[in-house]
Structures are given as structure tokens and as C-alpha cells.
Amino acid sequence: xxxxxxxxxxxAYERLAEIGAGAQGxxxxxxxxxxxxxxxxxxxxxxxxxxxxxxxxxxxxxVVIDSxxxxxxxxxxxxxxxxxxxxxxxxxxxxxxxxxxCGTSFAM
Length: 108
Hints:
It holds the Pfam family Fe-S_biosyn. By secondary structure, the protein is mainly beta.
């Protein structure tokens, strides 16, 4: 079965540029860890690039995903949203069978 790498929206790259991530030599790291109320949880941080990372880049801004997290994020969409309750990077993950209300944990 063919799996596609995650996609990053222009809005997510724009937000990284606004906060100066690329200018600081940092990338948005999206990882999946065990835990959370649904079994897995997303970890999103500004971080350095490692040797085993998949690097998604546009206009000097980078999003990186480690090799362990990559299968969990195949064909996912990484976005940035602003709502009344706050602004945050979000992940629309077609591999998740269910997720919690806050959107930071999921089950497969």
C-alpha cells in the first residue's frame, strides 16, 4: 500500500515565518508519542533538525517528522488555526480511528 507524506498548509508555513522559526534555525517538529486519553498524542515543538527526520520545507520554513512518527502521520495535514479559544497548530490525521475533544490525542 502506498502511503503519502504529510502535507503542510500555506497557513502553517506563514505562521512559522511570523514567529521567525526559520530565522532562528528552528523547525516545527511534529511527533507522535504513546499516551494521552486516546492512546497516542501529538507533540508539537520548535526544535533542531535531526539526521533521521523527514523535512518538509517551503520558503525557508521547515516542518520535521522523525522516522518513528512518520507512519502515524502518513497523508495527514498540518495546519494552523485561529479561533476564539486560541491559536494553534492542528493535525488532520486520516489514520486516526478516533480522537479526543481537544485534538491532541488519538487512537488508531
